[in-house]
From TrEMBL:
Protein name: Transcription termination/antitermination protein NusG
Keywords: Transcription, Transcription antitermination, Transcription regulation, Transcription termination
SMART domains per UniProt: NGN
Gene3D superfamilies referenced in this protein's UniProt entry, alphabetically: NusG, N-terminal domain
Pfam families reported for this sequence: NusG
Keyword Transcription: yes
Database matches in PANTHER family: RHO-INTERACTING TRANSCRIPTION TERMINATION FACTOR NUSG (PTHR30265), TRANSCRIPTION ANTITERMINATION PROTEIN RFAH (PTHR30265:SF7)
Species, as recorded: Roseinatronobacter alkalisoli
Length: 172
């Protein structure tokens, strides 16, 4: 895609450490639309496990604007933002398909939601990890978002646990 046909595109802005909320607020105040996909992360702090919403891409937020308007230059000077990700002298658009796919997987608050109603017997494709692109059958869906799948590997069925976010249902 050349930069000139980018009416309104998504770009990546690098955020200062722990400033994603501040950056989002300040960009919104200036009229920019932002998208910050979040996922649940469990961390151990002082011997206790805490689950919190963390950015899926730590240190980055998606920002939408029209490159032909000079207003994008203000993003770089926004409080909480380090700079727009650029190659050359202009910000580089993120493939729209990537942003759309991410948005489809998130709720209104930007939180990643598990793929819709996965159930035993469903045929899925693994999307990441050592078994990416393998086709498997869901055997069991655990409450902790882990899914047990059965895969045919070298003539035998192997049972593997995967995260709900790393499978994609095969369209019927």
């Amino acid at each position: 895609m050349n930069h000139h046909d980018c009416r309104s595109c998504w770009f990546l802005a690098q955020i200062k450490p722990n400033s994603h909320r501040i950056a989002e607020r300040n960009l919104a105040r200036q009229g920019f639309r932002t998208f910050l996909p979040l996922h649940e992360e469990t961390k151990r702090a002082r011997g206790k496990f805490r689950t919190q919403q963390s950015p899926l891409f730590p240190g980055y937020v998606f920002v939408e604007f029209d490159l032909s308007h000079g207003s994008w230059r203000t993003v770089n000077s926004t409080y909480g933002i380090t700079r727009l990700v650029s190659f050359g002298n202009a910000p580089t658009p993120v493939p729209l398909d990537l942003v759309n796919q991410l948005m489809l997987r998130c709720n209104r608050d930007g939180r990643l939601v598990p793929p819709k109603l996965l159930k035993p017997g469903d045929q899925v494709t693994l999307t990441k990890g050592p078994f990416a692109n393998f086709v498997a059958t869901i055997e069991q869906v655990a409450p902790d978002r882990r899914i047990w799948v059965l895969m045919d590997i070298m003539g035998g069925q192997t049972r593997v646990a995967v995260d709900a976010t790393s499978v994609q249902t095969i369209r019927q």
